[in-house]
Amino acid sequence: RTCKMQAPSSRAVHLSEWQKNYFAVTSGTCTAAQKAEAYRAQVLRVQYAWANSEISQVCASKLFKKYAEKYSAIIDSDNVETGLNNYAESVLTLARAQQTDSDKWQSGLSMSNVFQMRCVQEMMRAGEKLRGSLLAPADASVVIHGGAVVPDPPKSSLCGGSRESDPLTKAAHGTGWAPDVPGSGPSGSLSVQPPVATNTPKTCPMFSAPFGDLATPLFGHVRKENSGAPKASPGLSLFLPRQPRAPAGSEGPWDRSAFYSSGPAEALSAPTLSEALRKTEGNGHREEGGLPTFKTAKEQLWVEQQKKHHPPARAAAPSYGGSVKKSLGASRSRGIFGKFVPPVPKPDGDAHGGVQYKPDSAGPAEPAPPVDERLKSLEPKMIELIMSEIMDHGPPVTWDDIAGVEFAKATIKEIVVWPMLRPDIFTGLRGPPKGILLFGPPGTGKTLIGKCIASQSGATFFSISASSLTSKWVGEGEKMVRALFEVARCQQPAVIFIDEIDSLLSQRADGEHESSRRIKTEFLVQLDGATTSSEDRILVVGATNRPQEIDEAARRRLVKRLYIPLPEASARKQIVTRLMSREQCSLREEEIELVVQRSAGFSGADMTQLCREASLGPIRSLQATDIATITADQVPPIAYVDFDNAFRTVRPSVAPTDLALYENWNRTFGCGK
Ligand SMILES: Nc1ncnc2c1ncn2[C@@H]1O[C@H](COP(=O)(O)OP(=O)(O)OP(=O)(O)O)[C@@H](O)[C@H]1O
């Protein structure tokens, strides 16, 4: 557009113009463009007045600041009624400002050729389109001095945020005024020539890169700046004609504001930007549509979060709770987005224990297993958790895997395993107990025994630590207990192994937490239900290292209380022999006896640790270079010297004083001979 400000020639004219402008900005009847023009005129007049010593420098600078701010507020605002959103001005100003960076440096951009650039023309077209939908035709022109009506330049085409980085505008906010730009008159009046056809430069000297590329960093950068600005960012529209959700087609400000969110957070979550980011394949690559793929760390994080939470359809869904421990494997792990497959009752007589329903790999053609009525009242996530986390699917354990504890093993076979295998024979008085307690020092094989019961009786094994019931599922502990028993009922015969049962069934204390009390009550209720129902084949196996802390009511329900002591010499020998039989070992019989003697007071777990440590001895005797090259059978066998060394670091974990406590409790409440 042509915009020429005439310098006032006389003081009288100047004053009347001043009054006219004052009326224009206060009347409330003029358009935003007229107001902006009026403010700009005021700014120029302030300058003029100061230059003519009509006003003091202090006064001039105050007035200048005041009107420059008001002017910028209108120019920068994208409010359809009160702002002009004149981004084109900013970019042109930027281009001009570049020339002032160095006197020697010459910019390839000029007022005329910038309009010939392909991307600027695209912007103009997009801007025209957008402006057409935003401004009434009457508002789209500005009357300047003498009624010259000119269409607005491509206002809304260029990036809004650029104004903030515009040196000229920054200067305008300060005490300085317009730089020495081509086309500005001596009085500071500004002339902007209409587009003149010139050769469009193929490259932009500003960055020595093709202009198409120039647009990318320039506007990509401006776009980011703008995301933090209070106004919307029509500058983004530059890229959007190639975007599926281009706002160029937006019908009005509402559409536009929905697309261009006002704050950084919204900007990141705006669907179109999100979509654009989602489509981006890593940094440094360009989208098919040409959208620059520069991403801030926050955006990158967002993209990765999206990928994480919406994995490609073929990718395996993460298992619930993110753990694969004790799960049935990847095929069973359906993840939180997967379809819930409830467990189904296990047909009696299945001797394998463990998993009852088929993994997902069964295929969609297979009919879904019937939902057990008893589970319908439970929360699916709880059932899923029980099936994946609590139901143990480890390898079967045999009685031979457990060294020593012969009395406990014999008792368990008699009162638990056989009745579970032959419920038809073990009826009435011969009926199996519903709860047993294994107590003793840590690491003596209580968990092994629990697993072995399940494996040998063909039962489903549920293993849970009581402390996790009270701490892991805070507030949900009792629901979990109920769900656990319900799922176990559907998976009969079942063994529910509760480690550290003392923390669940400890004697009532004054400071006892309400939630712990509720869990305990629920557990006792469920245990009673399992005990009274003669059809249910559910065995609760509690294990504890602190039997003395168990509540009397609970103790009474765990009718068989079996002491699992430290392994005797024969059991320790069994453990060493068994473990060494799987390794290259040169231990002679008498050396094994020596190891057994020296390990008095060791638990089963300590013995295992001793053997592990000894097995590392031959490796430690090798040079580092040899370890890298030798074959497995070249590793020297485990010798007594290795055990000798291992005894220096592995010590018994159970204090002799604690043993006295167990034996005492066993004599009082235990079911041993
Ligand atoms: N009697 C045993 N026979 C063979 N190995 C044993 C025996 N006791 C313990 N172990 C070894 O110690 C490991 C730990 O045993 P386990 O977890 O069964 O002990 P625990 O009594 O349940 O311990 P905690 O009370 O600390 O839970 C076993 O995996 C096994 O390697």
From TrEMBL:
<dbReference type="InterPro" id="IPR003593">
    <property type="entry name" value="AAA+_ATPase"/>
</dbReference>
<keyword id="KW-0963">Cytoplasm</keyword>
<dbReference type="InterPro" id="IPR015415">
    <property type="entry name" value="Spast_Vps4_C"/>
</dbReference>
<feature type="compositionally biased region" description="Low complexity">
    <location>
        <begin position="181"/>
        <end position="195"/>
    </location>
</feature>
<comment type="subunit">
    <text>Hexamer. Interacts (via N-terminal one-half region) with RAD51; the interaction is direct. Interacts (via N-terminal one-half region) with SPIDR (via the C-terminal region); the interaction is direct. Interacts with FIRRM; may regulate homologous recombination.</text>
</comment>
<comment type="similarity">
    <text>Belongs to the AAA ATPase family.</text>
</comment>
<keyword id="KW-0547">Nucleotide-binding</keyword>
<protein>
    <recommendedName>
        <fullName>Fidgetin-like protein 1</fullName>
    </recommendedName>
</protein>
<keyword id="KW-0378">Hydrolase</keyword>
<comment type="function">
    <text>Involved in DNA double-strand break (DBS) repair via homologous recombination (HR). Recruited at DSB sites independently of BRCA2, RAD51 and RAD51 paralogs in a H2AX-dependent manner. May regulate osteoblast proliferation and differentiation. May play a role in the control of male meiosis dynamic.</text>
</comment>
<dbReference type="GO" id="GO:0010569">
    <property type="term" value="P:regulation of double-strand break repair via homologous recombination"/>
</dbReference>
<dbReference type="Pfam" id="PF00004">
    <property type="entry name" value="AAA"/>
</dbReference>
<dbReference type="Pfam" id="PF17862">
    <property type="entry name" value="AAA_lid_3"/>
</dbReference>
<dbReference type="InterPro" id="IPR050304">
    <property type="entry name" value="MT-severing_AAA_ATPase"/>
</dbReference>
<dbReference type="InterPro" id="IPR047858">
    <property type="entry name" value="FIGNL1_ATPase"/>
</dbReference>
<dbReference type="InterPro" id="IPR027417">
    <property type="entry name" value="P-loop_NTPase"/>
</dbReference>
<dbReference type="GO" id="GO:0005524">
    <property type="term" value="F:ATP binding"/>
</dbReference>
<keyword id="KW-0067">ATP-binding</keyword>
<dbReference type="GO" id="GO:0000228">
    <property type="term" value="C:nuclear chromosome"/>
</dbReference>
<feature type="region of interest" description="Disordered">
    <location>
        <begin position="154"/>
        <end position="195"/>
    </location>
</feature>
<dbReference type="InterPro" id="IPR003960">
    <property type="entry name" value="ATPase_AAA_CS"/>
</dbReference>
<feature type="domain" description="AAA+ ATPase">
    <location>
        <begin position="432"/>
        <end position="568"/>
    </location>
</feature>
<keyword id="KW-0479">Metal-binding</keyword>
<dbReference type="GO" id="GO:0008568">
    <property type="term" value="F:microtubule severing ATPase activity"/>
</dbReference>
<dbReference type="GO" id="GO:0048471">
    <property type="term" value="C:perinuclear region of cytoplasm"/>
</dbReference>
<dbReference type="InterPro" id="IPR003959">
    <property type="entry name" value="ATPase_AAA_core"/>
</dbReference>
<feature type="region of interest" description="Disordered">
    <location>
        <begin position="307"/>
        <end position="370"/>
    </location>
</feature>
<dbReference type="GO" id="GO:0046872">
    <property type="term" value="F:metal ion binding"/>
</dbReference>
<dbReference type="Pfam" id="PF09336">
    <property type="entry name" value="Vps4_C"/>
</dbReference>
<dbReference type="GO" id="GO:0016887">
    <property type="term" value="F:ATP hydrolysis activity"/>
</dbReference>
<keyword id="KW-0460">Magnesium</keyword>
<dbReference type="GO" id="GO:0071479">
    <property type="term" value="P:cellular response to ionizing radiation"/>
</dbReference>
<keyword id="KW-0539">Nucleus</keyword>
<dbReference type="InterPro" id="IPR041569">
    <property type="entry name" value="AAA_lid_3"/>
</dbReference>
